[in-house]
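Replying to the earlier thread about multi-chain prediction with a worked example.

Input:
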Amino acid sequence: MKLHKLLLTALFGAVALSLPLTAPPALAQAKEQFFPVLVYRTGAYATNGSQWANGYVDYLKLVNAKGGINGVKISFEECETAYATDRGVECYERLKGKNGGGTVFQPLSTGITFALTEKAPVDKIPLITAGYGRSESQNGAIFTWNFPLLGTYWVGADVAIQHIAKKEGGVVKLKGKKIALVYHDSPYGKEPIPILQELGKTYGFDVQLLPVAHPGVEQKATWLQIRQQKPDYVLLWGWGVMNSTALREAQATGYPRDRMMGIWWAGAEPDVKDVAEGAKGYSALTLQHGAEPNSKVVKDVLELVYAKGQGTGPKDEVGQVLYMRGLLSAMLGVEGVRKAQERYGKGKVMTGEQVRWGLENLNLDQKTLDAMGFAGVMRPVQTSCLDHMGSSWVRVHTWNGSKWEFTSDWYQADEKVIRPIVMLASSKYADEKKIKARTPEECKK
Amino acid sequence: MLYRENGQFKTSYAADQQIFPIAQDRWAILAIVAFAFVGVPLLVDEYLFRAILIPFLILALAALGVNILVGFCGQITLGAGAFMAVGAYAAYNFHIRIEDLPLLMSLLLGGLTSAVVGIFFGIPSLRVRGLYLAVATLAAQFFTDWVFLRVPWFTDNAASGSVSVSNLRIMGWQIDTPVSKYLFCLAFLTIFALLAKNMTRCAIGRQWMAIRDMDVAAEVIGIRPLFAKLSAFAVSSFFVGTAGALWGFIHLASWEPAAFSVDRSFQLLFMVIIGGLGSIMGSFFGAAFIVILPIALNQFLPALGGLFGVSISTAGVSHAELITFGALIIFFLIKEPHGIARLWSTGKEKLRLWPFPH
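Result:
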């Protein structure tokens, strides 16, 4: 009986103790720029999510090791979302007001991005979704707080078709071809569909849609369909365990891997490592960068963070594809703050609104990038009030059985294809929400 | 000493049959409701509203609905998430397709649509029961998942299958601040809880309970199983559907079918089992347990580690949260299989005799 009571007391004590923690802490660290970090290190997508998270956090540590953003140190806190939308929203609410307010959120989940898109304008915190999220949010006149920097799924779909056309010897050759899209059955996987269908109409190829249910370990039926219908190419829009499963099934059904192409979330080491030889010839798009273990920024991280024993993840993963993507995402946020400081005062802590101005006026030319150690990793990116994407450079890399190698030149998405659909989708959103688009005059403010 | 009904004499049937026959209970509940309406908005910060209180209120409403079906009528359902989805998407379609339809109407129509779908999926309950019925209701879950993912009409042809709402207002009252959202959900929950409590006390509720306890005997004494079972499905789905509409409109504002996956159905079923089957109070306890405890653990563990100078990794906290949560569920189920509500009533019994238990 005594033990019973003790347990109960302990339980209620634990709950009672934790309640005050939810209240916002005093502004003791107001001199630091606070970066909330939404991650998923557990759950179905943990292997991919944790690499990204390690890269993200390591870059923030690197900036601090180099003296901060013009002297302003960065503080950060992780919150686990497990890729679930409701937990993501809870994390957002938990972190947005902490330590003087969150600077920028990067949820690494299209589902969470959709939910936060409704909340960010109210709280005035920008949302960077580098390579994911709502494709139409590229239109900064309507999506004031979303920044799908470096590329959207529509860019990805367009470039994938460009690459296939090049392999076939011109867009005319696409006529009558069958292209299957094997996609994660969620907002993430469905994003490319409108562009593919549009391109299919223009060039006369047939698009087959093959959804795979979360988390994607059950694909037998999908690949049976592929074996029956024999599409000329398979586009893979998967994430986490779905990618390696797809490659295994392709191997089992004998579908040639060199006719499969993944989006940039289906082209990292965890996706192919376990299949190794079986994935040879499989290629994937890159969000500018691939695995870059020899770039200067990676060496900096190893020297200034890992050598001091402060590394977040395993050392041998530093420089891999998803690690680099986390690093790059953090860099974009940090550069947004740096740009904002140019206008609102160097060495000061920036608010979410000021950071948004910084992100809208981001201008990273090759010289700046080289100086930061990103030579060979990415190309210049320049945003504006109306264009929140900045650039749409994409390369293709191919798995050779043991590592990723670049196998194409730089592509750029076709503005003539993307722009009308972006405008159409974003004005539909604006109509629904009764949002007035920003005019060029408002942008100058 | 304080909690005792000595000297409270009932002089009419109405006084004897009221919901809270003991004056102390009555005042305590009134005080809690008054505090929830007046005190909480003054004291609580935005995080608690958005991340804890609003989800708690909405899921408590859904748990109430599930409890009517599972706890009072004895029909096990694994399709609660499906009825939430039906409520949310039906309310969304009413909201965008009919100009100037009041928000309240959209939400209630969402609930009504869900009730109709609930009756349809309740038909198998006339032939099968127990685990077999649970499997049959699971069909509802997979069916709605499929419909809202595959039929673009329901999501207004959104490319990604995700829908969103904004500019919610009722008679000029804009529902956008956390406080207004909280009050809106609280008003819903209060009215619906009162409704549920009264329904379980009147003829229809007694029919449900008779069916739950022994359906053959109930039929012999003149209760129609068809009416009793299908009405339980209808009322339950109405509650759950309204909760789903609130979850979409008020809590998330933008959602996809995954928000109402089979996990949600399990979560709701666990709520009523842990909270207490066949108890209105239990639905609240269960919702609190499932919604608040994981988040509290998630924030408490790093702080506990901090006290001892240990920093726990994000993944570590997350794993520990799941382990502790699972252990607590097992602990409660072993200690009190009738749920937290039974612990509560045992406590009240003890309090009545205190301080002279013999």
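The CA atoms of residues 177 and 205 of chain A lie 5 Å apart.

Feel free to reuse this layout for your own posts.
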